[in-house]
Structures are given as C-alpha cells and as structure tokens.
Design goal:
It is a peripheral membrane protein. By secondary structure, the chain is mostly beta strands. It has a domain of 178 residues: Methylamine Dehydrogenase, Chain H (7 Propeller), CATH 2.130.10.10. The protein has 3 helices and 32 strands. The longest helix is centred in the N-terminal third of the chain and has 13 residues.
Length: 486
C-alpha cells in the first residue's frame, strides 16, 4: 500500500502562533553558523522547493492527487516544532564519553541523569506498577555510547560505560488500544533530548503507522509523521529522518520535515536500513528490489549503487562510520561479506560457521579494523578486517595485520579443497546463553565489545587482538533488574 507522509505539530500550550519550542532553538543557530563558515556539501543544502535528491522536480510531492504531499508547502516556512532544531545544537542529555586518543574512557566518570521538570507530564511513577516489564525494542545510539529500550510501558535510556540507567519514561496506559503505553521502536539522536518513537506491543502508546518526535525536556511529543502502513523502523542523523515501511523508505530533512527522497524496496519486515553518521557525507543502505540485493545511496555525489551481495535474502548489514565499508549477511548466516560501497567490489569474506544461523547484528569498530557479529547460535565473533576504510576507493592495504583473521592452515591449496577449508575465521569469541536475541557493538575502551540481549542482559567483554581466543567478561548487568548486577 502506498504511504503518505504528513507532519502535524501538537497544540502549542502557549497558544502563540510564533512560539518556538526551546528544545530545538539552539540547534538551528549552530547549524546556521556552520553553514556560513563552512558551506555544507550537496546532500545537506537547504531545499527551496520539493525535489528529489538529484534535483528533479518531485511531482509526487507537489501533486495534490499524489499519495505523498509536502507537509510544508511554503518552502520558506519552518514548522514551529522543529524551528528550534535549526537554531542550535540539540541540548544533550548526556556528556560525551571521555576518551584517550579516541578509545579509552574513564572508569570513574560520572553521568548526569535527566529528570523532567514538567509537572503535567504523562510520565508515571516507574515503581507504581510492580508487574514484570516486557521488552519490545533494543538499540544503540549512533556512537554506541548509549542504548535505548522500548517496553510495554514506555522506554528507558542507558549509558554503556560506565553502565547506568539514565532515565525512564513509563506512560500511564489506558488498559488497551492506542495509549496503552507500549513503545515498539526508540531511536536516539546521539545524546540529546530528541527521540523518535513508534508504538508497539499489545497496547501501543501510539499508532503503529506514526513516528512520534519526542522532546524529553518537555516530556511530550512535539510532532509526528503519519503513513498509510505500519512503520518498520526509524533512523536518525543530525540532518535527516529516515522512516522504513514494509516496501518503502522515506528520507526527510530534519530541519523542516520536507520529503527529500523515497525508495522502493523488496519486502522488508525487519525494517533493515543503515546510514553513515560522518558529517558532510550521507550514505544510506537498504534492501534492493531483488532477493540478496542491497542498494547504496551516495547522497553527496548523487549516485546509486546496487550490489548483489548474496544468493539468499539479506538478513543483516552494517556500515562503517564513514560509509565506505558495508558488511552483509544472508539468511543462511554462514558467511559475512565486506564490500566497498563506492564501487560495489567484494573486499573480504569471513566465515561465522558451517551450519545455518540467523545473524542478529553486525558492527564495525570505529576504525573499521574489526567486525563483531552475533547470531542465534549464542556465540559472538570478532573478525579482523584487512581493508583500511580510509583508503577504500584508492588502494587496498597490502600488509594486513597477521593477527587480524585466523585463516585455515590449508589455505595454500584452497584451489583444490572446498572453500570451507580456506575460510577466514574469527579472532575472538564469547559464548552466550542460547534462546535470546543479542545485538553487539564495540565499546569506547580499546578492544572491548558491548553485548545487549532481549532477556535484559548487558555484557562488556575484552578481547586480545594478538592471541585472540575466548574474550574476557568485564561486566554483566540485567538492565531490567539493575539490582541483579554482579
């Protein structure tokens, strides 16, 4: 079913038509200063008319008979809900993690939690309902320093290192139907007060076809995007909102919620989509229209690249931070492939195992030296990568780290023996209880991995890049029952 996108800001409590939410005001001023001092690339220029990313007029966005319409027909007008966002950087709810040359973080660093000052908030006492919490959603923020959970009552935000619950918002359910408290998707925007929420569970807080923009300083939704079918996922950048439906993806400008681009995909019930986060470069990856195909959008250079990554359907993929490297896994789950997003070439192939598995999560390290993988087999694998993300597109590294990936000792006759015997295997592993789904990322401390489970488990582990083998568990918590930490 075709989707429609619309924006409607919630009623202004001050009934002042010129009112601008204090939540977003700061970001616009900083953005404007940045634009004046350092003009942005093509992909972040301000659109004065509704057009697609390649400069063509988008009749679908301007034709009143089209299922897609421009929510702000006046290109000079900015929705009051997001006006503050253009004037200043989002106010942060958490400080940036302290680092030592980009990797280490202080063990005794403190994190300040955010508490709502709105006495009329719909947030209820988190201890008022003693019944068990049902976890509906789990995701990292863009720098993997925090993670968010959606529950049948609301959502919670946690810091990874040091582990700590930052805040929670439990909604007062109405006993069923919309408004019941369930949040099925939570997308953070780095460490600021703006989040994107989608209802979920048996009693969703919001309709499943809407993306709600939540301002935690006001403890309320300040805007929404509405569609004709259920939302499968949301991704945020500082300049873009990406909404994933079953067979469509919509890209909006964050400043004024103008529709910039729409993409058709093969059936995508898991809401697969990933975007790069480096300023000045916007790369988006999503399923293509064919089984096993991925589509790569390079918005800065206005190029689209299709990659036939696998014979089976795509199960999972991940981008390096700069968008140069793409890791993909199919529904077979035996191999993970690394591609150059610039030209679509296959750079490396690593083997998770010999039997089929469902890959839940893939993540690059900040320098793209390592790749971590989780699956339903209960083992987290760390692979060494031979390709330097920074030189992709020019020349490949000719001297990989000898400890990067364990290759079979029979690789010298790989032309004779089956491919399995010359496979590249993981450097380090960590065993987990089977029966739960886990997502993974690299920690801010060097050679550490963070593992989150839908059973409420939080692990932080360390691997030895030289000797490899079993990872060392540094920390464990149950974030649904913090008192159970040990």
């Amino acid at each position: 079913m075709a989707a429609i996108s619309s924006f409607s800001s919630h009623p202004n409590p001050n009934s002042n038509p010129n009112f601008i939410s204090p939540m977003l005001q700061p970001y616009l001023e900083q953005q404007q200063q940045r634009i004046q001092s350092d003009p942005p690339p093509d992909d972040v220029t301000r659109y004065d008319a509704v057009s697609d990313i390649y400069g063509r007029d988008s009749s679908a966005a301007t034709n009143n008979n089209s299922p897609i319409h421009n929510p702000n027909p006046d290109p000079s007008s900015i929705s009051p809900m997001l006006q503050p966002y253009l004037d200043q950087q989002h106010q942060r709810i958490l400080p940036d993690p302290p680092s030592d040359e980009g990797n280490a973080v202080s063990e005794n660093g403190s994190i300040n939690s955010l508490t709502s000052t709105n006495n009329n908030s719909t947030v209820s006492n988190p201890n008022s309902n003693p019944s068990p919490i049902k976890l509906l959603h789990l995701s990292f923020n863009q720098d993997y320093g925090c993670f968010a959970t959606g529950t049948d009552r609301g959502f919670r935000i946690f810091n990874c290192d040091p582990f700590r619950e930052i805040f929670r918002r439990d909604f007062e359910g109405n006993g069923g139907g919309v408004g019941g408290g369930g949040v099925g998707s939570v997308e953070m925007l780095f460490r600021c007060n703006i989040l994107a929420l989608v209802g979920g569970g048996d009693s969703p807080q919001y309709p499943l076809n809407k993306v709600m923009i939540w301002d935690d300083h006001q403890s309320r939704c300040i805007g929404e995007l509405s569609f004709r079918s259920e939302v499968r996922g949301v991704r945020l950048r500082r300049d873009r909102i990406i909404v994933i439906l079953e067979q469509k993806i919509f890209v909006y400008n964050f400043a004024d919620l103008k529709l910039l681009h729409q993409i058709e995909t093969i059936a995508n019930p898991k809401g697969l989509c990933t975007v790069s986060q480096v300023a000045g470069s916007f790369v988006l990856v999503c399923p293509g229209l064919l089984k096993g195909q991925v589509r790569v959008e390079h918005y800065a250079s206005k190029r689209t690249k299709y990659i036939m990554a696998h014979d089976s359907r795509i199960a999972c993929f991940s981008l390096s931070q700069d968008g140069n490297l793409l890791a993909t896994a199919s529904s077979k789950g035996t191999l993970v492939r690394i591609y150059n997003t610039q030209d679509g070439s296959l750079l490396q192939e690593v083997r998770r195992g010999a039997d089929r598995a469902e890959i839940y999560s893939l993540a690059f390290s900040p320098t793209a030296q390592w790749l971590v993988v989780s699956s339903d087999k209960g083992t987290v694998h760390v692979f060494g990568l031979k390709v330097n993300s920074g030189i992709v597109g020019s020349e490949r590294s000719s001297s990989p780290d000898p400890a990067a990936t364990s290759s079979s000792s029979l690789s010298f006759i790989k032309g004779v023996l089956p491919k399995y015997f010359s496979s590249e295997w993981s450097v380090a592993q960590f065993r987990l209880p089977e029966g739960s789904q886990y997502i993974v990322a690299f920690g801010h401390q060097k050679n550490t991995v963070v593992i989150l489970g839908l059973d409420g488990s939080f692990y932080r582990c360390k691997f030895d890049p030289g000797s490899g083998g079993e990872m060392t568990q540094l920390e464990y918590h149950n974030f649904l029952k913090p008192e159970d930490a040990f």
